[in-house]
Amino acid sequence: MRVRDVAVAFLVAVLSVGGARAAQPNLGGVSPTGGQRGTELDVFLNGSRLTDAQEVLLYYPGIAVKELQAVNDGQVRVKFAIAADCRLGIHALRVRTASGVSNLRTFNIGPLKQVAEVEPNTDFAAPQKIEMNTTVFGVADNEDVDYYLVEAKKGDRISAEVEGIRLGITLFDPYVAIMDMGRFEISAADDSALVRQDSIASVIAPADGTYVIQVRESAFGGNGACQYRLHVGSFPRPTACLPAGGKPGETLDVKFLGDVTGEIVQKVTLPAEVPPQFGLVPEDAKGVAPSPVPFRVVDLDNTIEAEPNNALAEANVFTAPRALNGVIGAPGDVDHYKFAAKQGQVFDIHVYGRRIRSPLDSVMAIYRAADGAGLASNDDSAGPDSFIRFTAPADGEYVIGIYDHLKKGGVNYAYRIELSPVKPQVTVSLPEVARYQDVTVAVPKGNRMAAMFNASRQDFGGPLNLTVPTVPAGMTIETMEMAANQSSVPILFSAAPDAAPAGSLAPVIAAHTDPNTGIKGGFQQNSLLVLGNNQSRMWEHSADRMALVLTEECPFKIDIVQPKVPLVRNGSMGLKVAITRKEGFTQPINLRMLYNPPGVGSSSVVTVPGDKNEGTIQLNANGGAEIRTWKIAVIASAPVGNGTIETASQLADLPIAESFFTFAFQQAAVEQGQPTEVVIKVTHATPFEGSAEVQLLGLPNEVTTQPVQMTKDTAELVFKVATTKNSPPGKHVTLNCTAVVTANGEPIAHSLGMGVLRIDQPLPPKPMVAAAPPPPPPPMPAPAPTEQKPPEKRLTRLEKLRLEREAAKKAETAAAAQPAAPPPAAGEQKPAEAAPPKQ
């Protein structure tokens, strides 16, 4: 199996697992993958869990659903009516069922009539004959080569465009060639910049006759999933345009570049409000191109390049802000533009090359016009394109230069440089919960669902409000202000018990809380369609609305039991979740936090058995947890029918507070087998009623102690610690304490400190010294009057060792001062030693 096939198989596995997990219908493919505008056709939506299909949600206008029938669990038949003015190119859709909403798939609209590939057509001598201006729906199998025969007159334009990767099915790299009957390739292409990894070939017929169009996978691969749409005809197929953008509502002449017949000029009126996926479709008397050329619609006046401008001294002059439009027309070409700026003036300068599907790999530089000194340069900070944020160092004139990184050039190496003041921007997104799976929201009636929304701020700070202005009837939302230091917030969606199942592709708006700023932004979600090698996102679709559906009821509901006490820094809490089950529903239910506030951790998943109606999620806060009251939610999931259903709790309050007290461990040391004390100094921050039980934890093996009690007035804790002769010697740095305060009938658990206990081995015994008989005791003095002794001072381990050493020294000195025993008298014999026993 090749690397590409492994990547495809991996993505299929990921999507399959994700479908089952998400309790949603799964849409595996659309057949056919496209249609002709101005026609009606039957389309089959294939996947799983489609039995209760009720609606097709279409992201863009121009397609109407006239019929919908669930054939079986794996297929839905729909009849699409495609308007005559439907936008050409890629359209997106999802299937809504009574229980959820599917993943996103695409359906491509073209201008030509469609036919299906008819096998066998793998022999050059026996190609499939088709008419000019036809779209063929085919499949490239492994080592498969498909041939199609067309007729043309001398001077006719023959264009062939293949949609492969753009169908969003698999990692397909198509190759297309236009061949004469002598099997000579007149025009061929593998990757064409305008259509990314897909291919475009065009030629002027050199003679009357027949020509063969060849389609295959570029490396002669193909795994049965390599479907394609081949457009063949006399239509124009330019690959760039000049200018590459205009102002909203403006009417302007656009010059299309790269067609085999030469330049094509069209007068175009731009929309006042730019629709998604906007582009310009080239057309002439011979036909309409099957896909658009990307075109920017921005409120900037245009400057069109005027040659010569290769040298700094020849730079085209313009007034900023402005959009500069040109072409790197030949290898080694460099274009220059000059403008004036005041000291401190700041501009964002964006090159649009690859982003408008030009083959240009741009490099941009900024020079001081007076002496040509370089001030800044950039290759690809804006993804594949160049970007510079330029601050004018002084009043004066500056020059922008642009060229291709490899010094390439050509008629379609078009670019657009947009120079504009810095403008704050914000974009809302739904982050993936599981990798490669975009997030949708399905809300059972009489229940809730929640999701986390991200907001990406650029060039501003401050709080934001998120709104969802369009939701299905019977649904409401609840959210919270996104603070200036936050980038995500939860939104809770609730459905009324009597609401009817429905769906919506809903915009999500983020706006600064101060309306005077005028800062507002919309939603963007990138749905992965094709996974590339090394698990790269090879092909995806970007949508400006979220999929939001209201579904049939769910057999369970959850509610957070609102905590009555805070979660303290360096503390923990058992968050209780109550479950309401419909009679007879005994499936286990998994609980997880929707998100964790900063500095808070939680159990990943808690499973509640089918005979239980309460679960507890353990929460832990570190010492840096942000102190405030957070809105939290819990997500519950359980198997229902042939999938999994997810619901959410209410948004409950979770207050985070400072620890009520802090502990400072004193150094402690002990000899094996001896007792000692571990002393902890207490600093109070928040008074509390009653007493708290404190446990000393992290003691090494065979070291024991007992819990102690403390109150709001306790300044010092003393743990009586016992060791044995087997207690492990060494420096043990694992000591810590838990302290539990009870308030409002609920525990407030603290985990504090890090203490040290050193355990020493006993010193070896000293050699025995004969001791003199003790002196007679002195006479007993008269009893002195009793006095009140001060409380005994607690000695540290070091002080105890010093006292023991001093006592030992005194004993040695006393022994040395005693007279030695006299030697035996003359003639006096020493006592005889006992004879050894006889053997």
Structural description of this entry:
The protein has two helices and 70 strands. The protein is mainly beta. The strands form 18 sheets. Strands 51, 53, 55, 57, 63, 65, 67, 69 and 70 form a nine-stranded mixed sheet that branches. Strands 2, 4, 7, 8 and 9 form a five-stranded mixed sheet that branches. It has a five-stranded mixed sheet with strand order 10-12-19-14-17, with no helix packed on it. The longest helix is centred in the last third of the chain and has 21 residues. The chain starts with a helix and ends in a 22-residue tail after the last helix. The N terminus and C terminus are likely disordered.
Summarize the structure.
With 839 residues, the protein is mainly beta. It is 5% helix and 48% strand.
Give me the number of helical elements: 2
Number of strands: 70
Radius of gyration: 40 Å
Which structural category fits the helices and strands?
mainly beta
Unreliable runs: 1-22, 834-839
**Fraction of residues in helices?**
under 10%
Main beta-sheet strand count, sense and barrel state: 9 strands, mixed
Q: Name the overall outline.
A: elongated
Please write out the topology:
Layout: H1 3-22, E1 26-31, E2 34-36, E3 40-48, E4 53-58, E5 63-72, E6 75-82, E7 89-97, E8 100-101, E9 105-110, E10 113-116, E11 128-129, E12 134-139, E13 145-152, E14 157-163, E15 174-179, E16 185-189, E17 199-204, E18 209-217, E19 227-233, E20 240-242, E21 245-246, E22 251-257, E23 264-269, E24 279-280, E25 283-284, E26 287-288, E27 293-294, E28 296-297, E29 302-304, E30 316-317, E31 322-327, E32 335-341, E33 346-352, E34 362-368, E35 374-378, E36 387-391, E37 396-404, E38 414-421, E39 425-429, E40 441-444, E41 448-458, E42 464-467, E43 475-478, E44 488-495, E45 502-506, E46 509-512, E47 520-521, E48 525-531, E49 537-543, E50 546-551, E51 556-560, E52 567-568, E53 571-581, E54 589-593, E55 600-602, E56 606-608, E57 614-621, E58 629-632, E59 634-640, E60 643-648, E61 652-657, E62 661-665, E63 668-671, E64 676-684, E65 692-697, E66 703-704, E67 708-710, E68 716-723, E69 730-743, E70 746-760, H2 797-817
Parallel strand pairs: 2-9, 10-12, 11-13, 21-28, 29-31, 30-32, 40-50, 52-61, 63-70
Antiparallel strand pairs: 1-3, 3-6, 4-7, 5-6, 7-8, 7-9, 12-19, 13-18, 14-17, 14-19, 15-16, 15-18, 20-22, 22-23, 24-27, 25-26, 31-38, 32-37, 33-36, 33-38, 34-35, 34-37, 39-41, 41-44, 42-46, 43-44, 45-50, 46-47, 48-49, 51-53, 53-57, 53-70, 54-56, 54-59, 55-57, 58-61, 59-60, 62-64, 64-68, 65-67, ...
